[in-house]
Amino acid sequence: MLSGGGKIVLIHHVLSLLPMYWIQMLHPPKAVIRSLGKLCNAFLCDHSVDSKRVHWTVWEKLCFPVMEGGLGFRRFEDIMDAFSNKALVEVTLK
Question: Measured between alpha carbons, how far is 94 from 91 in angstroms, rounded to an integer?
Answer without folding.
Answer: 5
